[in-house]
Design goal:
The chain is α+β, with helices and mostly antiparallel strands and about 190 residues long. Helix content is about 65%, strand content about 10%. It has 4 helices and 4 strands. It has a 4-stranded mixed beta sheet with strand order 2-1-3-4. A hairpin with a 4-residue loop joins β3 and β4. The protein is elongated.
């Protein structure tokens, strides 16, 4: 009968409600799909970071390669600070190696300053008695360090962090777009 039929405005309101629910549902599915994609990409980026960490651990185990890397990290940090006396903080396991490269780092520092500015400038590098955290996998240690150095001057008030951990984090952050393009053509 005519009384049982819905008024046209009520019918339109129900139709709008159904259309809204469909749009919300579609949007939710799209967002869930995007989140899954982001999570999957995140897993790949984490895997790349883990692979690089493992590669760094093999570099650190090679005394010759690691010595050269430590020398470069120390010189770079010293050039950033440009102070006459600098303490070099390292992992306890690296102390002998770092001590051995300090003369070469001091010489390289002077050579770089002379070639870039024409000024004779020297730096006195010494081991900081405070150690960086140990290598990953060290029992009983929560904080870890892959290697590298922290340079400090003025009683530790000014520091340059040249640890492999920080360098890796910075590279991953700065190069995320390029890494994504390589991995996902995105």
């Amino acid at each position: 009968s005519l009384h049982d039929a819905l008024p046209i405005w009520e019918f339109q309101a129900k139709e709008k409600k159904i259309e809204s629910q469909r749009a919300i549902s579609r949007s939710r599915v799209v967002n869930e799909s995007r989140l899954l994609k982001v999570a999957e990409r995140g897993k790949f980026l984490d895997q790349v970071t883990t692979d690089v960490k493992n590669k760094l651990l093999t570099v650190v185990k090679d005394q010759r390669q690691y010595s050269a890397l430590l020398t470069d990290l120390i010189v770079q940090g010293a050039l950033t600070l440009l102070e006459p006396e600098i303490k070099v903080r390292c992992r306890q396991i690296d102390q002998k190696l770092v001590q051995a490269v300090l003369p070469a780092a001091q010489a390289e520092f002077s050579k770089v300053v002379k070639s870039q500015t024409g000024v004779d400038k020297s730096v006195s590098l010494s081991i900081d008695p405070k150690y960086l955290p140990p290598a990953p996998g060290t029992p009983g240690s929560t904080a870890t360090c892959l290697g590298g150095v922290v340079l400090a001057c003025h009683g530790g008030l000014i520091t340059v962090d040249n640890t492999l951990d920080l360098r890796l984090r910075l590279i991953v952050e700065q190069d995320k777009p390029a890494i994504r393009r390589q991995l996902f053509n995105a």
